[in-house]
Amino acid sequence: MGRSVLVTGGNRGIGLAIATAFAAQGDQVAVTHRSPVDDLPGELLPVQCDVTDSAAVDAAFGTVEEKHGPVQVLVSNAGITDDGLLMRMSEESFTSVVDTNLTAAYRVAKRASRGMLKARGGRMVFVSSVVGLLGSAGQVNYASAKAGLVGLARSVARELGSRGITANVVAPGFVDTDMTRKLSEARRTEILGQVPLGRYASPEEIAAAVTWLASDGAGYITGAVIPVDGGLGMGH
């Protein structure tokens, strides 16, 4: 039996690619989802959970622990966007995005640490974004939350490192997902012009970085920010 892995927001896009990659390695993988799902691969355990609700997070971990045992690898991936210019952005828009993308990461990390501390080992990987390092016009809320994940992960790394627990960040650039496919052709061309490699990442390339950080080979890496962005954010 493989490790007990939990991927939040693992029912689609990058999260699903991450969950599938862990399952392909033989790990026991659970994914949280907010809306009902019925088309997940059979090897994944779906757990309905609103990550903005501490009680729901605790219940989700209870389900995973019952089915797979204490979580050994946590991937905090769940997130939302609600874009808008600063002058027009409501306080609700700002706080809801921060709650889902950043505060929720604190919730799941805190809950996962309980089992990891007992086991004296574990892996936490937080999925940030290149915009958390570069900034992005029209995404003050999203960029703030994604930048906050770096401080969260590095603080966890310092606090829990002596117990064999690592905490790292993966910062994807533009990824070929349903969301980016909805962009206009002009906008897609504009984006590609900023990326040295001249293409979008595949979700599987993000997953490869995440699974590596959770592997034995990355056992001496903690507090790191790994960009998977085609060179878009180099130097940051």
TrEMBL record:
Pfam family of the protein (one): adh_short_C2
Entry superkingdom: Bacteria
GO molecular function, one term: 3-oxoacyl-[acyl-carrier-protein] reductase (NADPH) activity
CDD domains assigned: BKR_SDR_c
InterPro entries cross-referenced by the UniProt entry: KR_dom, NAD(P)-bd_dom_sf, Sc_DH/Rdtase_CS, SDR, SDR_fam
Keywords linked to the UniProt accession: Oxidoreductase
Catalytic EC class: oxidoreductase
E.C. number(s) listed in UniProt: 1.1.1.100
The Ketoreductase domain, residue ranges: 3-178
Family to which the UniProt record says this protein belongs: Belongs to the short-chain dehydrogenases/reductases (SDR) family.
NCBIfam families: PRK12826.1-2
Name this polypeptide is given: 3-oxoacyl-ACP reductase FabG
Organism per entry: Pseudonocardia humida
Lineage: Bacteria, Bacillati, Actinomycetota, Actinomycetes, Pseudonocardiales
